[in-house]
Amino acid sequence: MVKLVDTLGLGPSAFGRGGSSPLSGTTQYYKNFMGIFLLVLLFAILLSFFYSVVRAISWVPMWGKDIKTILDLADVKKDDKVYDLGCGDGKVVFAAADRGAKAEGLEISVLPYLIANARKIISRNKAKISFKDFWMTDLSDADLVYFFLIPRIYPKLKTKLEKDLKPGAKVIAYVWPIEGWEPTKVEKREKGPAIYLYEIK
Fold first, then answer.
1. pLDDT digit string (tens) for 18-53?
2. Contacts from 191-194 at CB under 8 Å and sequence distance 24+?
3. What global pTM score does this model have?
4. Other beta carbons less than 10 A from residue 183's beta carbon
């Protein structure tokens, strides 16, 4: 009987030391796998965050109450093509899509990108959330480009917008104005950041 057990490979060695179940080895394998997966995910999140900082697209949440003001200021309508550069959790593009706009958020930081897509799935919103660097994205079909970005990139961004955007396209800058451009409208409040609307000539 002992020989038969050994022949079939069912002896104590088959269950690990101390006669433990083979399931314990499988469990340990999955624990190791999940540990490695989480480390890789964390590394990807941190890497994308630092890349976004270098590219000056680090996500800073805007005031939620300003979303309607932004869309009203730009007079966003059905079928308008709307881009949010560095869309974060997607609030602006979701609101634009609710008005019937073809809204697309561009984001290169993994965590806000995942949050935005989770919100999109839960709300069944029609906005598109793209894992893209807006510096490498053609914006020529835009009717509106919105952004909340740091001013030090404005000179480079202004050049891109002047090159990409068609006459009549609108640009909204949140908080800081674009130096060298004359705004069509400015929304300033005693409490809250300014909102600048521009129109490409």
1. 445 555 667 766 666 666 656 665 555 555 554 455
2. 192/63, 192/65, 192/66, 193/62, 193/63, 193/66
3. 0.73
4. 17
- Domain segments of the chain as ranges: 12-54, 66-199
**For the chain, how big is the Rg over CA atoms in Å?**
26
Structure tokens of 160? 């891109």
Closest by alpha carbon to 189, among 83, 90, 73?
73
Concatenating the DSSP letter of every residue in the chain gives -HHHHHHTT-SGGGG-GGG--HHHHHHHHHHHHHHHHHHHHHHHHHHHHHHHHHTT----PPPTTHHHHHHHHTT--TT-EEEEET-TT-HHHHHHHHTT-EEEEE---HHHHHHHHHHHHHHT---EEE---GGGS--TT-SEEEE---GGGHHHHHHHHHHHPPTT-EEEEESS--TT---SEEE--SSS--EEEEE--
Q: How far apart are CA 6 and CA 13, in angstroms?
A: 9
pLDDT tens-digit readout, 158-175: 999 999 999 999 999 999
CATH for the 66-199 domain, from 3.90.1150.10, 3.40.50.150, 3.20.20.70, 3.40.50.12650: 3.40.50.150
Q: Which residue's entry shows tokens 């038969």?
A: 4
Can you read off the two tokens belonging to residue 5?
A: 């057990």
